[in-house]
Known about the structure:
Elements: E1 3-8, H1 17-24, E2 30-38, E3 41-49, E4 62-64, E5 67-73, H2 87-96, H3 101-110, E6 115-121, E7 126-131, E8 140-144, E9 147-151, E10 166-169, E11 174-179, E12 185-190, H4 196-209, E13 212-215, H5 236-240, H6 250-254, H7 258-271
Parallel strand pairs: 12-13
Antiparallel strand pairs: 1-3, 1-9, 2-3, 4-5, 5-6, 6-7, 7-11, 8-9, 8-10, 11-12
Amino acid sequence: MCGILCAINCDGISKSTEIKNILLRRGPDFSSSVIVNYDNVQMEFACSVLWQQGLSICPQPFETGNFLILFNGDIFNMPCELSSCSDTEWLGNEISKCRCESDICSIIQSLEGPFSLIIYNKTTGILYVCRDALGRNSLIMEAEDSKFRFLSTSYNFNANGDDVPAIMELPPLGLYAFNVTLPTEWKLFTWRETAYTMLDEIKKLNEIFRINVSVENYLQPKWLCNDLETTRSFNFYEMCKNLETTGNNLFEILLENKYVLEELQRFSLLLE
Protein backbone atom coordinates (compact mmCIF):
# COMPACT_ATOMS: atom_id res chain seq x y z
CA MET A 1 0.00 0.00 0.00
CA CYS A 2 1.38 3.40 -1.00
CA GLY A 3 0.07 6.93 -0.73
CA ILE A 4 0.07 8.77 -4.06
CA LEU A 5 -0.74 12.38 -4.91
CA CYS A 6 -0.99 14.60 -7.97
CA ALA A 7 -1.83 18.23 -7.23
CA ILE A 8 -2.59 20.59 -10.12
CA ASN A 9 -2.45 24.32 -9.33
CA CYS A 10 -2.93 23.62 -5.61
CA ASP A 11 -0.96 22.64 -2.51
CA GLY A 12 0.88 19.34 -2.30
CA ILE A 13 3.13 17.94 0.44
CA SER A 14 5.74 20.68 -0.06
CA LYS A 15 3.30 23.28 1.32
CA SER A 16 0.93 21.19 3.42
CA THR A 17 2.02 19.20 6.47
CA GLU A 18 -1.48 17.74 6.68
CA ILE A 19 -1.29 16.21 3.20
CA LYS A 20 2.23 14.93 3.88
CA ASN A 21 1.06 13.18 7.05
CA ILE A 22 -1.92 11.66 5.24
CA LEU A 23 0.39 10.09 2.68
CA LEU A 24 2.95 8.96 5.26
CA ARG A 25 0.30 6.93 7.05
CA ARG A 26 -0.03 4.83 3.91
CA GLY A 27 3.68 4.42 3.16
CA PRO A 28 6.24 4.95 5.94
CA ASP A 29 9.36 3.55 4.21
CA PHE A 30 10.09 6.28 1.65
CA SER A 31 8.63 9.67 0.79
CA SER A 32 9.42 12.07 -2.04
CA SER A 33 7.87 14.67 -4.30
CA VAL A 34 8.66 16.53 -7.50
CA ILE A 35 7.26 19.79 -8.85
CA VAL A 36 6.66 20.02 -12.60
CA ASN A 37 5.67 23.04 -14.68
CA TYR A 38 3.96 22.84 -18.06
CA ASP A 39 3.01 26.11 -19.77
CA ASN A 40 1.25 28.05 -16.99
CA VAL A 41 0.33 24.96 -14.97
CA GLN A 42 2.18 23.87 -11.84
CA MET A 43 1.89 20.28 -10.63
CA GLU A 44 3.27 18.39 -7.68
CA PHE A 45 3.62 14.62 -7.75
CA ALA A 46 4.27 12.87 -4.45
CA CYS A 47 4.35 9.38 -3.00
CA SER A 48 4.95 7.63 0.30
CA VAL A 49 6.05 4.05 -0.28
CA LEU A 50 5.30 0.93 1.72
CA TRP A 51 8.12 -1.41 0.68
CA GLN A 52 6.79 -4.92 0.00
CA GLN A 53 8.42 -5.94 -3.29
CA GLY A 54 11.81 -5.98 -4.95
CA LEU A 55 15.30 -6.28 -3.50
CA SER A 56 15.30 -2.59 -2.59
CA ILE A 57 12.83 0.27 -2.32
CA CYS A 58 11.69 1.62 -5.68
CA PRO A 59 11.51 5.42 -5.24
CA GLN A 60 8.38 7.24 -6.34
CA PRO A 61 7.53 9.42 -8.18
CA PHE A 62 9.18 7.13 -10.74
CA GLU A 63 10.67 9.08 -13.64
CA THR A 64 11.62 7.28 -16.82
CA GLY A 65 12.09 8.83 -20.26
CA ASN A 66 9.25 11.23 -20.98
CA PHE A 67 7.07 9.83 -18.21
CA LEU A 68 6.49 10.32 -14.52
CA ILE A 69 4.60 7.53 -12.75
CA LEU A 70 2.82 7.05 -9.42
CA PHE A 71 1.62 3.53 -8.64
CA ASN A 72 -0.23 1.95 -5.73
CA GLY A 73 -1.08 -1.72 -6.04
CA ASP A 74 0.06 -5.15 -7.12
CA ILE A 75 0.60 -6.54 -10.61
CA PHE A 76 -0.09 -10.27 -10.69
CA ASN A 77 1.08 -11.00 -14.24
CA MET A 78 4.67 -9.73 -14.17
CA PRO A 79 7.13 -12.07 -15.91
CA CYS A 80 8.43 -14.68 -13.43
CA GLU A 81 12.07 -13.97 -14.28
CA LEU A 82 11.57 -10.40 -12.99
CA SER A 83 10.32 -11.44 -9.55
CA SER A 84 13.17 -9.50 -7.89
CA CYS A 85 11.91 -6.29 -9.55
CA SER A 86 9.18 -4.18 -7.97
CA ASP A 87 5.96 -3.85 -9.93
CA THR A 88 6.41 -0.06 -10.02
CA GLU A 89 9.82 -0.39 -11.67
CA TRP A 90 8.55 -3.00 -14.14
CA LEU A 91 5.54 -0.87 -15.07
CA GLY A 92 7.70 2.22 -15.42
CA ASN A 93 10.07 0.44 -17.78
CA GLU A 94 7.15 -0.75 -19.90
CA ILE A 95 5.59 2.73 -20.01
CA SER A 96 8.93 4.28 -21.02
CA LYS A 97 8.76 2.27 -24.27
CA CYS A 98 5.44 3.84 -25.27
CA ARG A 99 5.50 6.02 -28.37
CA CYS A 100 1.80 6.89 -28.55
CA GLU A 101 -1.41 6.80 -26.55
CA SER A 102 -2.47 3.44 -27.95
CA ASP A 103 0.77 1.93 -26.57
CA ILE A 104 -0.18 3.17 -23.10
CA CYS A 105 -3.68 1.75 -23.48
CA SER A 106 -2.23 -1.63 -24.45
CA ILE A 107 -0.10 -1.79 -21.31
CA ILE A 108 -2.93 -0.72 -19.00
CA GLN A 109 -5.22 -3.24 -20.67
CA SER A 110 -2.76 -6.05 -19.91
CA LEU A 111 -2.46 -5.40 -16.16
CA GLU A 112 -3.92 -7.92 -13.74
CA GLY A 113 -4.35 -7.13 -10.06
CA PRO A 114 -5.54 -4.31 -7.78
CA PHE A 115 -4.09 -0.88 -8.51
CA SER A 116 -4.52 2.84 -8.86
CA LEU A 117 -2.03 4.80 -10.93
CA ILE A 118 -1.15 8.21 -12.31
CA ILE A 119 0.98 8.65 -15.43
CA TYR A 120 2.18 12.03 -16.69
CA ASN A 121 3.71 12.58 -20.13
CA LYS A 122 6.16 15.44 -19.65
CA THR A 123 6.36 16.11 -23.40
CA THR A 124 2.66 16.32 -24.26
CA GLY A 125 1.28 17.52 -20.92
CA ILE A 126 -1.20 14.63 -20.87
CA LEU A 127 -2.15 13.20 -17.47
CA TYR A 128 -3.52 9.66 -17.22
CA VAL A 129 -5.37 8.42 -14.13
CA CYS A 130 -6.78 4.96 -13.61
CA ARG A 131 -8.11 2.39 -11.15
CA ASP A 132 -8.40 -1.31 -11.86
CA ALA A 133 -11.73 -2.46 -13.26
CA LEU A 134 -12.94 -3.75 -9.87
CA GLY A 135 -11.98 -0.55 -8.04
CA ARG A 136 -9.93 -2.38 -5.44
CA ASN A 137 -7.52 0.51 -4.73
CA SER A 138 -8.80 3.97 -3.98
CA LEU A 139 -8.10 7.18 -5.88
CA ILE A 140 -9.92 10.29 -4.68
CA MET A 141 -10.51 13.28 -6.93
CA GLU A 142 -10.96 16.77 -5.49
CA ALA A 143 -11.53 19.97 -7.43
CA GLU A 144 -12.16 23.63 -6.82
CA ASP A 145 -12.20 26.12 -9.70
CA SER A 146 -9.06 25.37 -11.78
CA LYS A 147 -7.47 23.33 -8.98
CA PHE A 148 -7.44 19.53 -9.15
CA ARG A 149 -6.05 16.93 -6.81
CA PHE A 150 -5.85 13.14 -7.10
CA LEU A 151 -4.80 11.25 -3.99
CA SER A 152 -5.17 7.99 -2.11
CA THR A 153 -7.00 9.54 0.85
CA SER A 154 -9.31 12.53 0.77
CA TYR A 155 -8.13 15.92 1.96
CA ASN A 156 -10.27 19.06 2.10
CA PHE A 157 -8.80 21.95 0.08
CA ASN A 158 -10.17 24.47 2.48
CA ALA A 159 -8.15 24.89 5.64
CA ASN A 160 -10.31 27.93 6.49
CA GLY A 161 -13.53 25.92 6.50
CA ASP A 162 -15.14 27.88 3.68
CA ASP A 163 -16.83 26.22 0.69
CA VAL A 164 -16.29 22.47 0.51
CA PRO A 165 -14.68 21.46 -2.80
CA ALA A 166 -16.09 18.79 -5.08
CA ILE A 167 -14.92 15.38 -3.85
CA MET A 168 -15.53 11.95 -5.38
CA GLU A 169 -13.92 8.52 -5.57
CA LEU A 170 -12.82 8.29 -9.20
CA PRO A 171 -15.15 5.70 -10.79
CA PRO A 172 -13.16 2.64 -11.98
CA LEU A 173 -14.45 2.91 -15.54
CA GLY A 174 -11.13 2.77 -17.38
CA LEU A 175 -8.18 4.98 -18.28
CA TYR A 176 -8.89 8.72 -18.05
CA ALA A 177 -6.72 11.20 -19.96
CA PHE A 178 -6.61 14.99 -20.22
CA ASN A 179 -4.19 17.78 -21.07
CA VAL A 180 -3.29 19.66 -17.88
CA THR A 181 -3.80 22.97 -19.70
CA LEU A 182 -7.43 21.92 -20.42
CA PRO A 183 -8.40 20.08 -17.22
CA THR A 184 -12.13 20.10 -17.98
CA GLU A 185 -11.85 18.18 -21.28
CA TRP A 186 -11.33 14.48 -20.60
CA LYS A 187 -11.10 11.30 -22.63
CA LEU A 188 -12.07 7.92 -21.21
CA PHE A 189 -10.85 4.59 -22.55
CA THR A 190 -13.36 2.32 -20.83
CA TRP A 191 -12.67 -1.16 -19.50
CA ARG A 192 -15.62 -2.55 -21.43
CA GLU A 193 -18.37 -1.52 -23.81
CA THR A 194 -20.44 1.40 -22.57
CA ALA A 195 -23.44 0.44 -20.42
CA TYR A 196 -26.18 2.51 -18.78
CA THR A 197 -24.55 2.26 -15.34
CA MET A 198 -21.31 3.57 -16.82
CA LEU A 199 -23.10 6.51 -18.41
CA ASP A 200 -24.61 7.35 -15.01
CA GLU A 201 -21.13 7.49 -13.45
CA ILE A 202 -19.85 9.69 -16.28
CA LYS A 203 -22.84 11.99 -15.79
CA LYS A 204 -21.94 12.34 -12.10
CA LEU A 205 -18.39 13.32 -13.02
CA ASN A 206 -19.71 15.92 -15.44
CA GLU A 207 -22.10 17.38 -12.87
CA ILE A 208 -19.82 17.36 -9.82
CA PHE A 209 -16.62 18.59 -11.46
CA ARG A 210 -18.04 20.42 -14.49
CA ILE A 211 -15.88 18.42 -16.84
CA ASN A 212 -16.69 16.99 -20.25
CA VAL A 213 -15.85 13.28 -20.56
CA SER A 214 -15.78 11.83 -24.08
CA VAL A 215 -15.79 8.03 -24.36
CA GLU A 216 -13.13 6.53 -26.63
CA ASN A 217 -12.42 2.92 -27.65
CA TYR A 218 -12.77 0.39 -24.87
CA LEU A 219 -9.80 -1.59 -23.54
CA GLN A 220 -11.38 -4.99 -22.73
CA PRO A 221 -8.77 -6.80 -20.56
CA LYS A 222 -8.53 -10.53 -21.27
CA TRP A 223 -9.93 -11.48 -17.88
CA LEU A 224 -13.08 -9.48 -18.70
CA CYS A 225 -13.60 -11.31 -22.00
CA ASN A 226 -17.14 -12.26 -22.93
CA ASP A 227 -16.24 -15.92 -23.37
CA LEU A 228 -15.95 -16.17 -19.60
CA GLU A 229 -19.53 -15.09 -19.11
CA THR A 230 -22.42 -17.47 -18.63
CA THR A 231 -26.11 -17.35 -19.44
CA ARG A 232 -26.96 -20.08 -16.93
CA SER A 233 -28.83 -19.34 -13.73
CA PHE A 234 -30.03 -21.61 -10.97
CA ASN A 235 -32.99 -21.52 -8.61
CA PHE A 236 -31.62 -23.47 -5.69
CA TYR A 237 -34.91 -23.30 -3.81
CA GLU A 238 -36.62 -25.17 -6.63
CA MET A 239 -33.72 -27.60 -6.97
CA CYS A 240 -33.77 -28.45 -3.27
CA LYS A 241 -37.44 -28.46 -2.31
CA ASN A 242 -38.09 -32.08 -3.37
CA LEU A 243 -34.79 -33.51 -2.17
CA GLU A 244 -34.87 -36.09 0.56
CA THR A 245 -32.09 -34.82 2.77
CA THR A 246 -31.56 -33.65 6.33
CA GLY A 247 -29.42 -30.81 5.05
CA ASN A 248 -26.08 -32.22 6.14
CA ASN A 249 -25.27 -33.47 2.65
CA LEU A 250 -27.09 -30.75 0.71
CA PHE A 251 -23.96 -29.31 -0.92
CA GLU A 252 -22.74 -32.74 -1.98
CA ILE A 253 -26.08 -33.43 -3.66
CA LEU A 254 -26.03 -30.07 -5.49
CA LEU A 255 -22.52 -30.76 -6.75
CA GLU A 256 -23.81 -33.91 -8.40
CA ASN A 257 -25.60 -31.58 -10.81
CA LYS A 258 -23.36 -31.41 -13.89
CA TYR A 259 -24.21 -27.80 -14.76
CA VAL A 260 -23.77 -26.46 -11.23
CA LEU A 261 -20.36 -28.11 -11.05
CA GLU A 262 -19.31 -26.67 -14.43
CA GLU A 263 -20.23 -23.13 -13.39
CA LEU A 264 -18.38 -23.45 -10.09
CA GLN A 265 -15.29 -24.59 -11.97
CA ARG A 266 -15.55 -21.60 -14.31
CA PHE A 267 -15.92 -19.28 -11.32
CA SER A 268 -12.82 -20.82 -9.74
CA LEU A 269 -10.84 -20.03 -12.90
CA LEU A 270 -11.85 -16.38 -12.67
CA LEU A 271 -10.47 -16.19 -9.14
CA GLU A 272 -7.06 -17.62 -10.07
